[in-house]
Amino acid sequence: MTQEDLENFDDVERDNAYFDLFFELEKKNAAQYEELTKRLIKEKSLVIQIENFWVKYSLDRYGCSAAISHDAGESFSEHSWSRLGWSKKKKGKYLPTFLAKTETDVKFGLEN
Fold it and tell me: Which of 97, 60, 102 is nearest to 79 (CA)?
């Protein structure tokens, strides 16, 4: 095996671990994500705690952004944004997946 093969193998293992965690969280926390989706659509902004991090979600016309705070919600960084669609129906459909992805990103970052 070449060094490149080893690096690709590490990438595949890391990807597999990431998606395993994502699918586990998506299934295990489905009801929680649905409830958070309803709250977020109603309030347009929401801050939750995941492990020792704070995540601030903000809806705009076309999608949702997430910002992560490492200092108890004092300042947010590490922004991400996902296009969800314009209607509440589309946001309601895609937000649970975005919430699962954000939680996976936080937890996966802690593990690796």
Answer: 102
CA count, 13 A, side-chain hemisphere, 64: 28
Tokens describing residue 101 = 């992805």
Buried b (16+ CB within 10 A) or exposed e, 90-102: ebbebbbebbbbb
Kindly give the pairing relationship between strand 77-83 and strand 63-69.
antiparallel
Per residue in 46-69, pLDDT (tens digit) is 999 998 889 999 999 999 999 988
Tokens 């705009």, located at residue: 60
**What is the value of pTM for the model shown?**
0.83
- Structure-derived torsion over alpha carbons of residues 87, 44, 75, 101, reported in degrees to the nearest 10: -50
Per the model's pLDDT, the better-predicted residue between 75 and 42 turns out to be 42
**Spatial separation of the C-alpha atoms in residues 82 and 59, rounded to whole Å:** 10
Predicted confidence at residue 1, as pLDDT, reads 41
